[in-house]
Amino acid sequence: MSLQQILGQEKAIRLIRKAISHERIPHAWLFSGMAHIGKYKTALALAQTLNCLENGDDACGHCDFCRQIEHEHFPDFRVVRPEGKNIRIAQVRDALDWLHLRPDRAKYRVLIFEDADQFNRESANAFLKTLEEPPPDTLIILINLNPQNLLETIVSRCQHIRFRPLSREMVLEILRAETELSEDQLELLVSFGAGGARSDLALQVELMQNIQDSVIGSLTDLSAQCMESMLQRTNDWAKSKNEEWRLVLDVLENWFRDLAWIKHHLPHQDLFHAQKKQELEQCSKRFRLEDVYQFSKDLAETRKNIELNANRTLALESLWIRLKHYSTV
Ligand SMILES: [Zn+2]
C-alpha cells in the first residue's frame, strides 16, 4: 500500500505528503471520518512511507520493511484495537511502554489506535501524558469516527485530518479492485456502504440481497398482510446470531436517506440505491418529508438502544409499527 494508492482522499493525502516533504511530521495525528473510507490504509501507507528502505517520498510497498508493516509484523509498528467494548487502560499502558523504547530498526516507531472512539476515561487519561511529552522518533495515529467521542485535550494535541465520505463512483472503483463480485453485487455493496467501501461484507452478499429485497419489498407495500409477514421475519432476524438486525437497519437508514434526497430533488447519480429509482419514487409518495427525517432519527435511536442491550425483537417491531404509522397511504 502506498499513499498514491489511497483513492478518494486527495485532500488528506496532500496534507500528509506536505508534512513529509517539509519534514514536519507531528507527534500525533488524528484521522477522523466514517468507517470504510481509507483511514487505516492511509495510516499504514504513512508508516510504510516513513520507514521504507527505498527512502522515496512514498512507500514502495515491496521492500522488507513495507511488507512487514503491512502484515503488522514489524518490530517498530503496533496497532491497538479495542478488547471487548473499550480500549482498556492495560492496553494503553503496555503500548506506551513499548513506544518509549528506542526504535529497533525503523526511523519512526509508529503506534496506531484503531477505533479510538473506544477509549474509556481511564485509558484516555493514561494516554494524555504521552501526548504532552512524546518520546523522540515516534508517531501516534488515532483513528476515529467522530472527534467529539474523544477528550478535547486529546484532540487539541493531535494534528487533525478529516476524511471525506467516498463518492458512489469511487466506492465502485475500490470494490471492483478489492473483490471479485459481479456488477449487480457491487451495486448491492454500494447501497449498504453509505459512502464507504464495505468490502468486508463481500462474503455475505446473498444474505444482504435477501434482506434488502425483503425490506424494500415491504416498504413499497405496507399492506396488513405484508406487515404481518415482515414482523415474522423481523423476529427471525432479531434472534439470528449473525447480527442480521444490523443489515436491516443499514437498509432502512440508506433507503430513508435516499428518500430525503429524492424529496429535495438532489442528483440521482448520488443515490445509494441508484438502480431502484422507480421503487424510491413510489415509496417517497407515501411519506412526508418531516416523517422521513423523524424515522431516520428513530432508526439511529433504535440502533443505539440495541447496542445498549434493548430487546432486539421489540425494538425492531416497534420500528415497523412506527413506519406504518408514518405512511400516508
Ligand atoms: Zn518500501
What does this structure look like?
This protein has helices at 10-21, 39-51, 64-70, 89-99, 121-132, 152-155, 168-178, 183-193, 205-219, 224-239, 244-263, 277-284, 289-307, 312-326; strands at 28-32, 77-80, 109-113, 138-144, 159-162. With 329 residues, the chain is an alpha/beta fold. The protein folds into two domains: 3-162, P-loop containing nucleotide triphosphate hydrolases (Rossmann fold, 3-Layer(aba) Sandwich); 168-326, Zinc Finger, Delta Prime, domain 3 (Up-down Bundle). A five-stranded parallel beta sheet has the order 2-3-4-1-5, sandwiched between helices. The longest helix has 20 residues, at 244-263. The model has no long low-confidence stretch (mean pLDDT 90). The structure holds zinc ion. The site of zinc ion has 8 residues, from helix 3. Zinc ion (ZN) is lined by residues 52-54, 59-60, 63, 65-66.
Portion in helices: 40-55%
| CATH-derived architecture of the largest domain | 3-Layer(aba) Sandwich
Unreliable stretches, pLDDT < 50, 5 or more residues?
none
How many strand segments? 5
Present as ligands are: zinc ion
Any idea what the CATH superfamily of the largest domain is called? P-loop containing nucleotide triphosphate hydrolases
Counted up, domains total: 2
First-last Cα distance: 52 Å
> How are the strands ordered across the major sheet?
2-3-4-1-5
**CATH class membership of the largest domain:** Alpha Beta
| Mean of pLDDT | 90
Number of helices: 14
Describe the secondary-structure layout:
Elements: H1 10-21, E1 28-32, H2 39-51, H3 64-70, E2 77-80, H4 89-99, E3 109-113, H5 121-132, E4 138-144, H6 152-155, E5 159-162, H7 168-178, H8 183-193, H9 205-219, H10 224-239, H11 244-263, H12 277-284, H13 289-307, H14 312-326
Parallel strand pairs: 1-4, 1-5, 2-3, 3-4
Helix pairs in contact: 2-3, 4-5, 7-8, 9-11, 10-14, 11-12, 11-13, 13-14
This protein binds zinc ion (ZN).
The site of zinc ion (ZN) has 8 residues, from α3.
